[in-house]
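Practice problem: predict the structure.
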Amino acid sequence: MLQLFKVTMSMRKYGYKRPVFFLNNTFLLQLGFIYFLIL
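Answer:
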């Protein structure tokens, strides 16, 4: 779980340098993945 957090944080860090669409896309993917883990 901690590993996943580090990966998401690094993804978010790189996402800021790219277009907003990419940032929104990765955020939605992270949200879906966390939702999948809970279920």
